[in-house]
Amino acid sequence: MFDWLKLLLLPGEIPTVTQSIVAIMLAIGTGVFFGRLKLGKVTFGVSAVMFTGLILGHFGYRIQPGILDFIRDFGLILFVYGIGLQVGPSFFSSFRNEGLKFNILAVSTVLLGGIITVALFYMTGLKIEDLVGIMSGSVTNTPGLGAAKNTIEEITNSFPDKKFNDPTIGYAITYPLGVFGIIGTIILSKFLLKINPDEEMKKFRKSKINRELPLVHKKIRVTNPEYFGKTLHQTIKEFGREIIISRLKHSGSIAVKSPTMDTELQDRDVLMLVGLEKDLDDFIATVGRPSADLFIESDNQIRKKNIYVTNSNVIHKKLSELDLYNTFDLKVTRVFRAGREILPRPSLELFYGDKLVVIGSQEGIEEVEKIIGNSEKKLLEPDFLSLFGGLLLGVILGSIPIVIPSLPVPIKLGFAAGPLIVALLISRYGGISFIHSYINTGATYFMKDFGICLFFAAVGIHAGDGFYDNFIQYNGWLWLLYGCAITFIPLILMVIVGRFIMKINYLQLVGIMSGSYTDPAALSFSTNYLDSDIPIQTYAQVYPLVTIFRIFVASLLILFFS
User: Which family does it belong to (predicted)?
Assistant: First the structure.
């Protein structure tokens, strides 16, 4: 009576389309469930989908070859594109501070792992595709595995007689080692270095002085006679640092206005300032003294409102082009973009999804809303034209053949690096034509996690087919030993160099360790173990460049040594 249900849910040697879909759903569903369970302080999250896929593949579940390739590649594309959009803004801005130092350390770790892999190639006699799989698993790098498989496919298309082993086997054997290896290194290094997370947090906060800090607002009463009769333009120019004067109230009056740059200062004027805290403190000390006036915060004459950029006609226009103050008597005091707070300079170019904090009259704000858009509903709706346009550009970039002399086939960025680079550039420059960088935060997380779940399910089920036999056949314990060299040697050297030579804060160093191995499970563990969100910041700073280098290293190793 229930034969149809058995046929649907139980594994089959030659699966139908429906059975293939069921296998994928089972792998993802059970993987997400087990990924939420805690092992001490460790949760594996979506990484557990890889393990449940291996188990299902071992017990006979299969996916049709065509569906398998599609699910694997499409999942990888969604994952890396989502990562690029998520970390792109902080990735580029970080190079103005410590990002360059962090990325040099992280990329050096990637290159060292590649050198160790080459050394193992000459010492062990293993085929390079097996070692690249071992390397990718040992550093939990999924895009590197995808790039290796794409490169093998390109070579096979050009040289049909050339045979390759599947790098997924080595990846599946050493992947758990990569996950637990970095977690073990974090625990051991904290113990050996006698790290006190609270002390490290204090040092981190102290080091952040005079760096990229949040904008604040303060009030000042003008008392320095040198500035009486001077315009705001002259005053700010003499001060020499960027601040915004959003409101002004004359002494003895309760009328508050948004001043123009040619407004002249008078004795005991009260100003509302926006800028970096140190800059505001210095300005107040120069021009007057702090004020406790409450009338200037009144909204009787002027209103304050957040306006979202959703009208395509103003995207990529500069604030100076819109000239909102002279046209509508309205001033922009702050701009929020991808979690960052930006001072609204006249040269600032608007991106889709920017949040402008404006002050002015109710009538002026209503008029500007018509121009800027301010449709929060539109921001919540998925813009599939922009999303799939960006994905298409990424696939096209990843498919461009790059001819390098002496290589058997042209090298390609592939489905991993192509979409990642496009997403980084789109997030940096706000978009290309109708393709913009803004995607709702929840949608970005969904796309990223859904993509990696699809990839893990496809790779896990495929690798699980004969996994035990492969482990015995290829002497899996020996492969784990090779993986240990790739996992631990770069990690140990990173801790030594980062801590003692580069003097990097341990909380930041842990984020670099997790980012260099592109390991979200280790990142999740470290934030709980150290009770700090600092590792997340440095993880985001190094992840994009590390991913690109791991993709290139995996592809070049296959091309040079196969």
Answer: Belongs to the AAE transporter (TC 2.A.81) family.
Dihedrals phi, psi of 373, to nearest 5 degrees:
115, -70
Contact yes or no for 562/167 (Cβ under 8 A)? no
Rounded Cα gap, residues 555 and 129, in angstroms:
10
For residue 489, what pLDDT is reported? 94
End-to-end CA distance of the chain: 53
| Domains parsed from the chain with CATH numbers | 2-204+381-561 (no CATH), 311-374 (3.30.70.1450)
Residue type, 293: D
Contact, 208 vs 537, CB < 8 A? no
Rounded distance between C-alpha atoms, residue 240 and residue 247, angstroms: 20
What does the buried/exposed string (b/e) look like for 133-142 if buried means 16 or more CB atoms within 10 Å of the residue's CB? Answer: bbbbbbbbbb
355-396 tens-digit pLDDT: 888 887 787 788 888 888 877 777 777 778 888 888 999 989
Contact (Cβ atoms closer than 8 angstroms) between residue 526 and residue 388: no
Each as own residue / partner, the long-range contacts of residues 226-234 (CB below 8 Å, 24 or more positions apart, any chain) are: 227/265, 227/287, 227/288, 228/265, 228/266, 228/267, 229/264, 229/265, 229/266, 230/264, 230/265, 231/261, 231/262, 231/263, 231/264, 231/265, 232/259, 232/260, 232/261, 232/262, 232/263, 232/265, 233/261, 233/262
